[in-house]
Fold this sequence. Notes:
- By secondary structure, the protein is mainly beta.
- It is built from 2 helices and 22 strands.
- 31% of the residues are buried.
Amino acid sequence: MSLPGVGHKGHLLLTKESTYGTSPGSAQDKYEVENFEYDANQSIIADPNINSSGASARSIVQGLQFVTGRFRIRIGFEGFENLWRFVLPTYSSAIVTGTTRDHTFKEGNALSGYSATFSEGDIPTGKGTLFTGMLCTGFRVNLEASQGASGIIVADIEFAAEDVVENSTVLTGSPTVANIIPVPFHFLMRTGTDIKDGSGLGDTSIFLRSFALSLEYPHDTRRGYLGSVWADSPVRDGPLSGRIDFEAQWDANNFVLMNKLLTNAPTAGGLKLTFQHPTIIEGTNKRELEFKASSPVAAGYHKSVPGPGVIMQRYSWALEFNAADASLLVVRTRNLKGALA
């Protein structure tokens, strides 16, 4: 009797490539994931000739193949720096005090190529699916306070890859699982919502129920040429776009913010959402994760009174490039991890 692969034995090994499309062979990080899937996007082309003796196609030939995939991962405060660089490739770091360091991630003209192996249930042992030339094509993070006692933050990441090899030896090295903090990054750890639009709204007047952030990276994945079965490496074919949506308790504080959206007035100073782990790591420093969009543009709002309960208000912003930040979105982590190579 053969043993099946089971999901709880799976894991993702990820590493940045020095040369695009060439696996370094060893991994920088190991991640637990909620799910993982990919498509070889195989296609066929049926002979359209109408001069046939029967009703069926007289010839079926193979079409272009290209690799796309997606996975869901729980986000933590430390050890996810390579994942953030996969999403936002421009990276810098600076010491705060002692060994506490801020890691900052911004957009870039070109994404960094990554290699990864995913072990599907350790079948066969030590083998997995190898992806090379991976580029992030989409990112979504969602959080709801109504998910049990507090919502755990998860990210959905979409990718395109230049090549895939089944039954490959997994990336070597001995990276530990990245989310080293036993308490996951979740809704109760929010320390600040900053909306500097002149309304005076902030930590004490924004009562968030949910928060969603999404980035889209359009890529041309169908770069096929005569004589090639697999598509050439994906390239960007559109601007990076971003969006922030949240749902807040409706009260008197919301009128100014609502009118800003209705008149499409700019949200001067932007939006900032900060999460902080309760444990001090050094001096007064704590682990942090922060999302900042300095140039949000009103993209809509929705009001609904579904019944006799608390009324909630939904707000949406599109993210515009900010020259001072040199990015439409800035992600910052604070922890004890050393600078990325």
